[in-house]
Design brief:
Elements (H helix, E strand, L loop, with lengths): L1 H19 L39 H6 L6 H4 L23 H7 L3 H7 L4 H4 L7 E6 L1 H11 L4 H5 L2 H12 L2 E2 L19 E3 L5 E9 L5 E6 L4 E11 L2 E6 L13
The structure holds 2-acetamido-2-deoxy-beta-D-glucopyranose (2 copies).
The site of one 2-acetamido-2-deoxy-beta-D-glucopyranose (NAG) has 5 residues, from helix 5.
Amino acid sequence: MASRRLQALALCLTFVAILGSNSVNAAKLIIEDTLNPINCGCTDVDPHDSFLSGHVGFQCFDQARFGACSQPFMQTAIREIDEGYCQISCGRCDCCKSMEKILKQQGLNMFAWALNFTEYGEYIAMPGFMATLLAPTDDAMNDMLGKLGYENKEAVESDSNAKGIVGDIARYHILLPIAEIDSLWSAPFMRKNAVMLSAIRSGTRTVGSHTGDNGGQHILLQGAKSNASILQTDIEACKGFIQVLDTALIPFAMTGYN
Ligand SMILES: *[C@@H]1O[C@H](CO)[C@@H](O)[C@H](O)[C@H]1NC(C)=O
Ligand SMILES: *[C@@H]1O[C@H](CO)[C@@H](O)[C@H](O)[C@H]1NC(C)=O
Protein backbone atom coordinates (compact mmCIF):
# COMPACT_ATOMS: atom_id res chain seq x y z
CA MET A 1 0.00 0.00 0.00
CA ALA A 2 2.73 2.43 1.00
CA SER A 3 4.69 1.74 -2.16
CA ARG A 4 1.59 2.41 -4.23
CA ARG A 5 1.12 5.77 -2.57
CA LEU A 6 4.72 6.58 -3.41
CA GLN A 7 4.09 5.42 -6.92
CA ALA A 8 1.05 7.67 -7.02
CA LEU A 9 3.12 10.55 -5.77
CA ALA A 10 5.86 9.86 -8.30
CA LEU A 11 3.25 9.78 -11.03
CA CYS A 12 1.74 12.99 -9.72
CA LEU A 13 5.13 14.67 -9.91
CA THR A 14 5.63 13.36 -13.44
CA PHE A 15 2.22 14.70 -14.36
CA VAL A 16 3.02 18.11 -12.91
CA ALA A 17 6.26 18.05 -14.86
CA ILE A 18 4.33 17.36 -18.05
CA LEU A 19 1.85 20.12 -17.38
CA GLY A 20 4.62 22.52 -16.49
CA SER A 21 6.53 22.08 -19.71
CA ASN A 22 4.75 23.45 -22.77
CA SER A 23 7.40 22.36 -25.19
CA VAL A 24 6.98 18.68 -24.41
CA ASN A 25 4.79 16.74 -26.76
CA ALA A 26 2.71 14.58 -24.42
CA ALA A 27 2.26 11.86 -27.03
CA LYS A 28 5.99 11.19 -27.04
CA LEU A 29 6.35 10.89 -23.30
CA ILE A 30 7.00 7.49 -21.87
CA ILE A 31 5.81 7.04 -18.34
CA GLU A 32 7.85 4.16 -17.05
CA ASP A 33 5.83 3.32 -14.02
CA THR A 34 2.15 3.75 -14.79
CA LEU A 35 -0.20 3.48 -11.87
CA ASN A 36 -1.61 -0.01 -11.68
CA PRO A 37 -3.60 -0.60 -8.53
CA ILE A 38 -2.84 -4.29 -8.55
CA ASN A 39 -1.61 -5.31 -5.14
CA CYS A 40 -0.50 -8.85 -5.94
CA GLY A 41 2.05 -10.61 -8.09
CA CYS A 42 0.00 -10.84 -11.28
CA THR A 43 0.72 -8.97 -14.48
CA ASP A 44 -1.38 -7.81 -17.40
CA VAL A 45 1.12 -7.26 -20.21
CA ASP A 46 -0.50 -6.26 -23.51
CA PRO A 47 0.56 -8.36 -26.49
CA HIS A 48 2.71 -6.41 -28.91
CA ASP A 49 2.12 -6.75 -32.64
CA SER A 50 5.88 -7.04 -33.02
CA PHE A 51 8.77 -6.98 -30.59
CA LEU A 52 10.60 -4.65 -32.89
CA SER A 53 7.93 -1.98 -32.99
CA GLY A 54 6.57 -2.56 -29.51
CA HIS A 55 3.20 -1.47 -30.92
CA VAL A 56 0.10 -2.65 -29.07
CA GLY A 57 -2.88 -3.13 -31.37
CA PHE A 58 -5.32 -4.23 -28.69
CA GLN A 59 -4.95 -4.09 -24.96
CA CYS A 60 -5.57 -7.06 -22.70
CA PHE A 61 -9.11 -5.95 -21.87
CA ASP A 62 -9.99 -5.93 -25.60
CA GLN A 63 -8.33 -9.29 -26.18
CA ALA A 64 -10.47 -10.72 -23.38
CA ARG A 65 -13.60 -9.11 -24.86
CA PHE A 66 -12.79 -10.63 -28.26
CA GLY A 67 -12.46 -14.07 -26.65
CA ALA A 68 -8.77 -14.30 -27.56
CA CYS A 69 -7.63 -15.60 -24.15
CA SER A 70 -7.51 -19.23 -25.29
CA GLN A 71 -5.29 -18.42 -28.29
CA PRO A 72 -1.85 -20.04 -27.98
CA PHE A 73 0.04 -16.73 -28.37
CA MET A 74 -1.64 -15.45 -25.21
CA GLN A 75 -0.58 -18.35 -23.02
CA THR A 76 2.84 -19.24 -24.31
CA ALA A 77 5.64 -18.47 -21.88
CA ILE A 78 8.09 -16.21 -23.61
CA ARG A 79 11.36 -15.14 -22.10
CA GLU A 80 10.22 -11.69 -21.02
CA ILE A 81 6.81 -12.75 -19.72
CA ASP A 82 6.92 -16.21 -18.16
CA GLU A 83 3.28 -16.14 -17.16
CA GLY A 84 2.06 -15.23 -20.66
CA TYR A 85 0.25 -12.12 -21.79
CA CYS A 86 -2.84 -10.71 -20.08
CA GLN A 87 -2.76 -12.83 -16.93
CA ILE A 88 -5.29 -10.59 -15.14
CA SER A 89 -7.63 -9.82 -18.03
CA CYS A 90 -7.79 -13.48 -18.99
CA GLY A 91 -8.80 -14.50 -15.46
CA ARG A 92 -5.57 -16.40 -14.67
CA CYS A 93 -4.94 -14.41 -11.49
CA ASP A 94 -6.28 -15.44 -8.07
CA CYS A 95 -4.98 -12.57 -6.05
CA CYS A 96 -7.35 -9.79 -7.11
CA LYS A 97 -11.07 -9.36 -7.63
CA SER A 98 -13.24 -7.95 -10.40
CA MET A 99 -15.20 -4.80 -9.65
CA GLU A 100 -18.41 -6.80 -9.69
CA LYS A 101 -17.11 -8.99 -6.86
CA ILE A 102 -15.97 -5.98 -4.83
CA LEU A 103 -19.32 -4.22 -5.27
CA LYS A 104 -21.08 -7.34 -4.05
CA GLN A 105 -18.69 -7.76 -1.13
CA GLN A 106 -19.26 -4.12 -0.09
CA GLY A 107 -23.05 -4.39 -0.40
CA LEU A 108 -23.16 -1.86 -3.25
CA ASN A 109 -25.84 -3.82 -5.04
CA MET A 110 -28.05 -1.03 -6.33
CA PHE A 111 -25.16 0.59 -8.19
CA ALA A 112 -24.22 -2.78 -9.74
CA TRP A 113 -27.87 -3.15 -10.75
CA ALA A 114 -27.91 0.32 -12.38
CA LEU A 115 -24.71 -0.46 -14.33
CA ASN A 116 -26.60 -3.34 -15.92
CA PHE A 117 -28.57 -0.79 -17.98
CA THR A 118 -25.28 0.03 -19.73
CA GLU A 119 -22.48 -1.86 -21.47
CA TYR A 120 -20.46 -1.48 -18.26
CA GLY A 121 -22.59 -4.10 -16.47
CA GLU A 122 -20.77 -6.70 -18.54
CA TYR A 123 -17.38 -4.99 -18.22
CA ILE A 124 -17.26 -4.84 -14.41
CA ALA A 125 -17.45 -8.64 -14.33
CA MET A 126 -14.21 -8.75 -16.36
CA PRO A 127 -11.09 -8.53 -14.14
CA GLY A 128 -9.19 -6.50 -16.77
CA PHE A 129 -11.63 -3.58 -16.83
CA MET A 130 -9.77 -0.43 -15.88
CA ALA A 131 -11.77 2.38 -14.25
CA THR A 132 -12.51 4.18 -11.04
CA LEU A 133 -16.10 3.69 -9.94
CA LEU A 134 -17.89 6.25 -7.80
CA ALA A 135 -20.35 3.87 -6.19
CA PRO A 136 -23.25 5.37 -4.19
CA THR A 137 -24.49 3.29 -1.25
CA ASP A 138 -27.75 1.40 -1.68
CA ASP A 139 -29.52 4.02 0.48
CA ALA A 140 -28.21 6.78 -1.77
CA MET A 141 -29.35 4.92 -4.88
CA ASN A 142 -32.81 4.33 -3.39
CA ASP A 143 -33.09 8.03 -2.44
CA MET A 144 -32.22 8.93 -6.02
CA LEU A 145 -34.86 6.59 -7.45
CA GLY A 146 -37.42 8.13 -5.08
CA LYS A 147 -36.58 11.67 -6.20
CA LEU A 148 -36.87 10.63 -9.83
CA GLY A 149 -40.35 9.33 -8.99
CA TYR A 150 -39.69 5.58 -9.25
CA GLU A 151 -41.07 3.52 -6.43
CA ASN A 152 -38.62 0.63 -6.72
CA LYS A 153 -36.31 -1.34 -9.00
CA GLU A 154 -39.20 -3.02 -10.77
CA ALA A 155 -40.67 0.35 -11.74
CA VAL A 156 -37.42 1.14 -13.55
CA GLU A 157 -37.00 -2.31 -15.09
CA SER A 158 -40.43 -2.15 -16.72
CA ASP A 159 -39.95 1.31 -18.26
CA SER A 160 -37.43 1.75 -21.10
CA ASN A 161 -37.25 5.51 -20.62
CA ALA A 162 -36.43 5.00 -16.93
CA LYS A 163 -33.76 2.46 -17.78
CA GLY A 164 -32.12 5.03 -20.07
CA ILE A 165 -32.13 7.67 -17.34
CA VAL A 166 -30.76 5.36 -14.66
CA GLY A 167 -28.16 4.10 -17.17
CA ASP A 168 -26.97 7.67 -17.79
CA ILE A 169 -26.73 8.30 -14.06
CA ALA A 170 -24.69 5.09 -13.69
CA ARG A 171 -22.31 6.17 -16.50
CA TYR A 172 -21.80 9.49 -14.74
CA HIS A 173 -20.23 7.50 -11.87
CA ILE A 174 -17.59 5.83 -14.04
CA LEU A 175 -14.21 7.56 -14.36
CA LEU A 176 -12.27 6.03 -17.25
CA PRO A 177 -8.45 6.14 -17.38
CA ILE A 178 -6.86 9.46 -18.31
CA ALA A 179 -5.81 8.55 -21.84
CA GLU A 180 -2.55 10.51 -22.05
CA ILE A 181 -1.01 8.71 -19.10
CA ASP A 182 -3.16 5.56 -19.07
CA SER A 183 -3.76 6.07 -15.35
CA LEU A 184 -6.71 6.17 -13.05
CA TRP A 185 -8.17 8.67 -10.65
CA SER A 186 -7.50 7.73 -7.03
CA ALA A 187 -8.09 9.65 -3.82
CA PRO A 188 -4.62 11.30 -3.58
CA PHE A 189 -5.28 13.05 -6.90
CA MET A 190 -8.73 14.31 -5.96
CA ARG A 191 -7.55 17.75 -4.89
CA LYS A 192 -9.59 20.93 -4.91
CA ASN A 193 -10.76 21.85 -8.43
CA ALA A 194 -9.68 18.61 -10.07
CA VAL A 195 -12.17 17.93 -12.89
CA MET A 196 -12.75 14.24 -13.48
CA LEU A 197 -14.46 13.27 -16.71
CA SER A 198 -17.03 10.51 -16.56
CA ALA A 199 -18.08 7.94 -19.14
CA ILE A 200 -20.73 10.37 -20.42
CA ARG A 201 -17.98 12.96 -21.04
CA SER A 202 -19.46 15.22 -18.45
CA GLY A 203 -17.40 16.03 -15.42
CA THR A 204 -17.46 16.03 -11.65
CA ARG A 205 -15.34 18.52 -9.76
CA THR A 206 -13.55 17.95 -6.47
CA VAL A 207 -14.50 20.88 -4.26
CA GLY A 208 -12.50 20.06 -1.15
CA SER A 209 -12.98 17.90 1.89
CA HIS A 210 -14.82 17.99 5.18
CA THR A 211 -14.70 16.14 8.48
CA GLY A 212 -17.35 13.43 8.71
CA ASP A 213 -19.29 12.20 11.76
CA ASN A 214 -16.62 9.61 12.50
CA GLY A 215 -13.89 12.22 12.41
CA GLY A 216 -12.51 11.05 9.04
CA GLN A 217 -11.83 13.44 6.16
CA HIS A 218 -14.33 13.03 3.33
CA ILE A 219 -13.62 14.27 -0.18
CA LEU A 220 -16.46 16.44 -1.51
CA LEU A 221 -17.55 16.09 -5.12
CA GLN A 222 -19.71 18.52 -7.06
CA GLY A 223 -21.80 16.99 -9.82
CA ALA A 224 -23.95 18.96 -12.24
CA LYS A 225 -27.16 18.58 -10.21
CA SER A 226 -26.11 17.11 -6.86
CA ASN A 227 -23.08 16.89 -4.61
CA ALA A 228 -21.63 13.90 -2.77
CA SER A 229 -19.01 12.94 -0.19
CA ILE A 230 -16.67 9.99 -0.58
CA LEU A 231 -17.26 7.85 2.51
CA GLN A 232 -14.62 5.24 1.72
CA THR A 233 -11.73 5.77 -0.68
CA ASP A 234 -9.69 3.56 -3.01
CA ILE A 235 -11.06 0.08 -2.45
CA GLU A 236 -8.88 -1.94 -4.80
CA ALA A 237 -10.10 -4.14 -7.61
CA CYS A 238 -7.74 -5.87 -10.07
CA LYS A 239 -7.39 -2.84 -12.30
CA GLY A 240 -9.36 -0.10 -10.65
CA PHE A 241 -10.60 1.63 -7.55
CA ILE A 242 -14.02 1.92 -5.98
CA GLN A 243 -14.98 5.06 -4.06
CA VAL A 244 -18.13 4.80 -1.93
CA LEU A 245 -20.41 7.87 -2.16
CA ASP A 246 -23.10 9.02 0.25
CA THR A 247 -25.25 10.55 -2.54
CA ALA A 248 -25.86 9.77 -6.21
CA LEU A 249 -24.42 12.34 -8.61
CA ILE A 250 -26.82 13.64 -11.27
CA PRO A 251 -25.42 14.69 -14.67
CA PHE A 252 -28.20 16.98 -15.93
CA ALA A 253 -31.59 18.40 -14.99
CA MET A 254 -34.25 15.74 -14.56
CA THR A 255 -37.40 15.19 -12.51
CA GLY A 256 -36.57 15.88 -8.87
CA TYR A 257 -33.25 17.58 -9.74
CA ASN A 258 -33.77 20.96 -11.37
C1 LIG B 1 -26.26 -7.85 -14.04
O1 LIG B 1 -26.44 -8.69 -15.18
C2 LIG B 1 -25.71 -9.92 -15.11
C3 LIG B 1 -25.84 -10.61 -16.44
O2 LIG B 1 -27.17 -10.71 -16.84
C4 LIG B 1 -26.20 -10.74 -13.94
O3 LIG B 1 -25.47 -11.93 -13.83
C5 LIG B 1 -26.02 -9.92 -12.67
O4 LIG B 1 -26.55 -10.61 -11.56
C6 LIG B 1 -26.71 -8.57 -12.78
N1 LIG B 1 -26.34 -7.76 -11.61
C7 LIG B 1 -27.24 -7.20 -10.82
C8 LIG B 1 -26.69 -6.52 -9.62
O5 LIG B 1 -28.43 -7.24 -11.02
C1 LIG C 1 -22.87 21.75 -4.58
O1 LIG C 1 -21.77 22.45 -4.00
C2 LIG C 1 -21.55 23.70 -4.60
C3 LIG C 1 -20.24 24.30 -4.09
O2 LIG C 1 -19.84 23.76 -2.87
C4 LIG C 1 -22.74 24.62 -4.35
O3 LIG C 1 -22.50 25.87 -4.93
C5 LIG C 1 -23.96 23.95 -4.99
O4 LIG C 1 -25.10 24.71 -4.72
C6 LIG C 1 -24.16 22.55 -4.48
N1 LIG C 1 -25.18 21.92 -5.28
C7 LIG C 1 -26.23 21.28 -4.75
C8 LIG C 1 -27.20 20.69 -5.73
O5 LIG C 1 -26.40 21.18 -3.55
